[in-house]
Amino acid sequence: MRIFHKKDGGIVQLIDKEKMQEWPVELPLIFIEYIREKQIEKYEDTKVKKEISNYINEILKDVAIPRLISVLEGDNDEETISALQRIEELSKKNIEMTNPIRPYLNNLLKHRNKEIVKLAQNISNNFTKADKKKELAKKRKIMQEKEKEFLAGKISGEEYARTRKDYLTLKE
Question: Would the CA dihedral through 53, 58, 60, 63 be positive or negative?
Fold first, then answer.
């Protein structure tokens, strides 16, 4: 276990890198994203946040990425397919946790094994959908602001119509 001491006397325990070597290939990535997205902000001690962030980066560099690369670029198609299936399932539930695989998808899309290509394409499609959702959410927020401004008489009908058109074309 890796232990981080907080100023208030409490501790934060995270699993050791060596133990992660035994995990399935995608679990260290999930662990890293979970800590970054859900846990790190809960720790009020900035020193502990920084130490944990450094440790997470260390895990990514020393354990997660090398293991992922070895599986994705390895010769064992069965192991690659198995890892991609688990990553695909995860990408359907929470695309953010699968972000570290994104740079490796292009190579997998050119793989000789059709099943690997299919799984990589599915994961890539999930990223595309998530990106479109994010963009749509941004446009929706802008649209709501412009609508309020239009109703308050602060912007013209043409400007409102342009914003509405941008929003609707993206939505399609």
Answer: negative
Q: Which two tokens stand for residue 14?
A: 């995270």
DSSP strand pairing (2-5 vs 11-14):
antiparallel
> Which is nearest to 45 in space by CA: 78, 92, 7, 14?
7
Closest among 141, 138, 146 to 163, alpha carbons compared: 146
Condensed to tens digits (0 to 9), the pLDDT of residues 106-128 reads: 888 988 999 999 999 999 999 99
| Cα-based distances in Å from 125 to 56, 61, 113, 139 | 28, 26, 18, 21
State mean pLDDT over 54-74. 85
